[in-house]
Each structure stands twice: as C-alpha cells, then as structure tokens.
Amino acid sequence: MPDPTRSTVDAVATFMGGADTELLSSEQKGFICSVRMLENEMREATFSGEQVKASVAELFPPAVLFGPEIATLPCAHRELRKWLDGHGANLQQHSSHRVVMTLATSLYVDTEDRVAATQLASDLIAAGRRLSGGGAAPLPSSSGQRDEAPSTTNDRLAHNIAMRFRDGSCKFSGNLGEAWMEYVAEYQQVARDYDLNQMQRFQYMHNILSGDAKRYYLDKVQGYATSFTQAVDMISTEYNSIVRQNRVKNYLSSYRMSSLTRDGVSEAAALEQTYKTITKLAPQVPRSHQGDAHKVEFLRNAVVGSPWATEPLSRIATHGLTFQQLYGELEAALHLHKEARLAVAHANSSSSRPLTTQDVPGILFSGQGRYARPVTNSSAFTNKRPGGVYRAGRGNPLAIMGCFNCDDPAHTMKDCPQPINAVRAAERKLDYYAKKKTGKPAASAILFQLCSQVDAMEIAGENTSASDDAGTTHDANADDERRLFEALMSTSAGGDGSDAAVVDTEAKADFVMED
C-alpha cells in the first residue's frame, strides 16, 4: 500500500478532496491515498471500465473495503461509487438501492470474493440500523477517536421487544401450518404498544422469526429491503408461492380428524382443532380454492366416516350449508351423540339380568333361602357394623375377597383405580382375616370333640355287659344324641367364633359325655 503521507499525491488528488486526512486513522488515510494514486496512474495511461474495477478490487479486498475502519468513514462507499462510474466502470444498480450492496455484487469478479463481500455488506447494513434506530454511523471526532454514545432507551426497547416474543410459539418458522400474516398482525400490535416507528419495526423484526424463516430473512431480506413493508412483502412472497399454496391445498384435502382422536384427543377437541386449522390455512391456498364452498369440502373430508357426522353431511347438498353452519351442526350432532351414549350406558348399568338356573347358587349360605337373589359381583349380602350402619358385602364368599381399598368386589387392591389408602386397606384386610380365622376353630373344635367322644362311647359300649337291657341302652343312646345335638345347635346359634365360644362348646360336649 502506498505511503499515505506523500504530499505530491495530495496536491494533485481529487478523490474525496474535502476530507481532512489529519483527523483520520491510518487505514482511512491509506484508502483515500490509494484511490488518488490509482487516479494519477489513469492520467498517464488509458484504463477501461473493467480495468478500473479490477484495479480497485485488487487494492481493496472485501475485508478491507467493508471493514469497520472504512465503514466509519463518512460517504466513503458513496464517493467510491461515483468515482468508479465517472471512470467508465458503470456499476449495475442493486435491487435494494444500497451502495454497499452495489459495490459488493458488481466490483468483484471472483465468486468467493463476491460472496464474502455480500455477507460483509449485509452485516454493515444491519449494524447501521442498530445504531440510533437505523441512523447513519457516527462521524469521527476531532481527537481522532470515534464517538461512542450507546442509546440506553433503544437498548431497553430492544430488550422489551425480545421478551415479548421469547416464546417459540410466537415466532414464524415457515412450517406448513403457520400463517405469516397472523404473526405480522401480532407484531404490529406490539409495535403500537411501544410506539415504534417504521425503521424500528424493521430493526426489531427478526424477533418474530425462527428456523428456516429467520435464515431466509438474514440472507435474502435484511440486506436488501429498505423498509418494514418491503420486508414483509418479501417474506410473504417466499412463503406464499404457488408451490406452497398447492401444498397447503393438498394438506387440507387430506386432513383427517381421526388422526387427532387416535392420539388421545377427545372428539369435541379434535373437531374444534380441525375447524381452527381450516380457518387459519384457507387464505394460503390458491385463489381458485379460497371460497366458502371449498372450506365446506375440507371440513367434510375431515369428519366423513364418523357415525355422528352422517346426518349433518347429508344436508350439505340439500340445504346449501355454509362453512359456519356445517361446523355448528356437526358440533350439535356430536354433543347429541355423546348424550345418547351416556344414556345407553346408564340404562345398561341400572338394568339387571334375568334370573337363570345357573345364577342360583348350589350351596345356601347364611341369610339365603331357596328363593334368594342370585349372587353377583354387586353382592346380595350386607354386614351390619356397630351403630346400625350397613355396608355392602364382598360378594360371593367362594370368589375373591374383593378390593380392600375401595370395597369393590369386582377387582382386587392391586387393580384398584382409586388412590391407595394404606391405613384403610390394612384395617379392612385385618378385619377380613380375623373373621375368617376366628370362624374356623369353633367348628373344627366341635367336630373334633364330638368325634373323640363318639369313639369313646363306642369303646365303652363294647365293654358293656351283654346282660344289660337292650331297651334301656337304646333309650340312653337316643337321649345322648339328643343332648349332643342341642349342645351343637346352641353353640351355632349363640357363638361368635371367639375362643370363649370354643371353650363353652368343649365344656358342653364334655358334660354330655360325662352324663
């Protein structure tokens, strides 16, 4: 790079002649003096426009021409553009009308240099918008240092806007089920709340974008659009193309409410979600399919096959139902279908089955007679607790004992749908096994004592003299049997299965034998 202090060059130079090189940095001085030196060479030899562009591209790589030092030099890129056009370069105007983008796309012939220059130019444009609400870069001060005056108000405003759209559901990502203009409308409402001007709306627009849409914005919109309205139109054109419109149409045509119900969504919620999806995506289909009749067709295809939807769908052709009317009739039919199912289920649960011979138990238990009700899971027994309170029994004593948690005989405690109450379950379980355990020793003890005493009677009978009177022996045996039977019946009627009852039974049995 030539020496920027050469006075001979300054004397004949015309490029940015009004700039005071004493107040500039060394890199800025080098930029101006390099162009002036190239201008002097062009006075001695003839240069074509392409040669001028090639010389400038060789002197200033993208990292230098679009670097922070040259970017802070006022009107540097604009003056370079005028200088090139004045020497026959004839740079092609960029569609964004940005000088830096025109230089980046027209000055460099090498593909890698052009790509790098375009990216750096986009970064410069974005950085320029972030400074004081999109104003120009600050001028160098008289001391040679750039003034740095960060705007606290703008920083706070940028933070507030970012916080309003920090949730991912508030950002447009370009997916098929998203409508771009809905996100724009919400952003416009927030912009009105914070009183943002058009430049600030453009500056903070990236907060409502994510995923592929944000990458498209950074690559194709941020560096080319000049206003918020233009940026919105560019994104709308990209994500509302003919191809995308056909994709949305095919998506709505194949949309099925049954796919939602298979995922566990209720039919009412699935119908509402289907209605909202069609309403949101209908404006994105081709214009030829944006009428109300096509929305009716989309809704019909989504619910066809459901039993409750048959009658409302049959009235589409005869009554000319609109989209709103069809949705209202489908919602009413679904509600009526749900009520009918509940009524049928209630009727089935309240009605009893007819009595059959298989329902009558072969063994009659306590409290049952020949014409007793059949034993079912709901149980025909009741147990009376202290205080006169009755509770449902546990069903067939030959079946399972039922649930100790909720007292339902239809299942056991491990299958109970109710929350487990450990204390209540333990009490019921102990009560059940206590009654089951205390009932058995009384009967077994009675049978054991009776059998033992009968054996003793038989042995005693064998040792009795044959000379005893037969009639007297027969009367004594009949009397003994009667007294044994009375003792057994009195124990069964008054005993409660406790140890006292067992002792009393044994005493009565011994008394009978001793007699």
Folded structure, characterized:
The protein has 515 residues and is mainly α. The chain contains 23 helices and two strands. Helix 16 runs antiparallel to helix 20. The N terminus and C terminus are likely disordered.
User: Regions with pLDDT < 50 over 5+ consecutive residues?
Assistant: 1-13, 132-151, 357-372, 377-400, 492-515
Give the neighbour order of strands across the main sheet.
Answer: 1-2
Radius of gyration: 49 Å
- Element string (H = helix, E = strand): HHHHHHHHHHHHHHHHHHHHEEHHH
What is the arithmetic mean of pLDDT?
74
How big a fraction of the residues is strand? under 5%
Write the layout of secondary structure elements.
Elements (H helix, E strand, L loop, with lengths): L6 H6 L13 H19 L4 H11 L2 H4 L2 H4 L4 H11 L12 H8 L4 H20 L21 H13 L15 H14 L4 H6 L7 H11 L6 H11 L3 H12 L4 H5 L4 H15 L10 H12 L6 H5 L1 H4 L3 H28 L31 E3 L5 E3 L29 H41 L7 H25 L4 H16 L1
Antiparallel strand pairs: 1-2
Provide a compact summary of the structure.
This protein is mainly alpha-helical and 515 residues long. The chain is built from 23 helices and two strands.
